[in-house]
Amino acid sequence: MTLLPDSWMRITVALGIGLLIGVERERRKGEGRHRAPAGIRTYAVTALLGAIGFELGGVPLLAVVALAVAGFIALGYFRTRPRSDPGLTSEMVQLLTLLLGALAMREPLLASALGVTVALLLAARTRIHTFVRETLTEAELHDALVLAGAALVILPLMPDRHMGPFDAINPHLLWIIVVLMMAISAGGYIALRLLGPRYGLPVAGLASGFVSSSATIASMGSLARRKSELMAAATGGAVLSTVATIVQMALILGAAHPPTLGALALPLLSAGAAATAYGGWVLRQALRQNTPDTIEMGRAFSFRSALMLAAMMGGVLLAAAALNSWLGSAGLIAGTAIAGFADTHAPAVSVASLVAGGKLGADDAVVPILLAMSTNTVTKVVLAFTSGGRGFALRIVPGLILTIAAAWLGSLATFG
Question: How do residues 365-410 score in pLDDT, each as one tens digit?
Fold first, then answer.
């Protein structure tokens, strides 16, 4: 059998994978009579066995080679069993190296990427063990499993089509919102834990703004009222949550219906620029203030809150579709404006969904969405005063007014 030049390249990739993994295993092989049986040469040869076996005989020959290698691995494991570490990592990695060598003959780029990933996991053994055993808490592990289940198990099972009354509900889109809310809230939690209140609160505020800027302002205000020494950092987090709201609005509209995002491009850019400028100024002031290094941590996210927000979005989608069907554009404007008092993302998604369904033009979506943003600004102003008091609110409200005014000015510049 004559090997083509392309085959030589793939065999070289397989050899590189074996050498890369073998280098890491060689460093952990140990010395003396109880050293590991496989080192850099063994892993390189194992990868070549997988590549050549697959090239010469396909899957049947590869299966025979894999059984033979597994037999030798088992003999080596029983011979070195008295060692203090009875784990099976090296044995499993050697079998994986064989399969990666075979995969390199079909998908060399994928095999290379997987080989590098395996080598990184092996090299990071100590850090991973320390993180899992000493750093990660039981509650954090539970939250991580819930988030992984929601994203990797439930999301793929959700129907990706509009259904229900008025064809207003898309379960897949709503569950994406649930996963997004939990993931961003978890990101804020990680930032707060890693960076502390001084930098963590602003970062957490920015991240939590993707979940709910109103809720973020309320929680930051409550924190500032309870602990006056955190006023500056909490203010920075509250203001930056507004920046996150604009970014999230753009992301959601882009995912739901890109033409709607195009119609709102200038208003959102104007609002985002105003919010960023004001947020940067407030953050600069906050970083100059003295802030404690530690703070009591809560949970990474609230699954219940994410579900409630998605349920509310579904209700708004249904209500907006019904009002639009019964009353036309006037009903849509009234419905989105009222819904905006509770949340600005839900009416935006509902309007974009109506545009995507052909029930509304993209340009006609601008006013309802901006009205929802305006009524939501009113809610934020009220929450700033009631949760954080006058001092907290006077730092937040000017930025809120500046942001929504910039959005309306952007719409006037777009549509005259």
Answer: 788 888 888 988 988 888 888 888 888 889 899 999 999 999 999 8
Question: Which residue in 274, 218, 221, 219 sits closest to 246, CA to CA?
Answer: 274
If one counts the domains in the chain, the total is 2
Give the Cα separation of 21 and 28 in Å (integer): 11
Residue with tokens 């990868």: 47
Type of residue numbered 408: W
Which residue in the block uniquely carries the two structure tokens 């970062």? 203
Residue type, 346: A
CA distances from 175 to 45, 248, 372 (A): 47, 16, 22
pLDDT in tens, 282-337: 888 777 766 555 555 566 666 776 777 677 667 766 776 676 667 665 666 777 77
Which amino acid is it at 407?
Answer: A
**Pair of tokens at residue 53:** 């076996």
Give, as one character, the DSSP assignment of residue 107: -
- Report whether 271 contacts 246 (CB < 8 A): yes
Rounded to the nearest angstrom, the gap between the alpha carbon of residue 390 and the centroid of all alpha carbons in its chain is 35
Provide the residue range defining the domain that includes 97: 5-131
* Among candidate residues 108, 131, 154, the one where a domain is terminated: 131
In this structure, are 232 and 329 located in the same domain?
A: yes
The reported pTM is 0.57
- Give the number of other Cβ atoms within 10 Å of residue 128's Cβ: 12
If asked whether residues 65 and 197 sit together in one domain, one would say no
Angle CA 275–344–226, to nearest 5: 70
d(CA 54, CA 73): 20
Q: Which of 73, 96, 131 is the last residue of a domain?
A: 131
Angle, in degrees to the nearest 10, between helices 171-226 and 303-327: 120
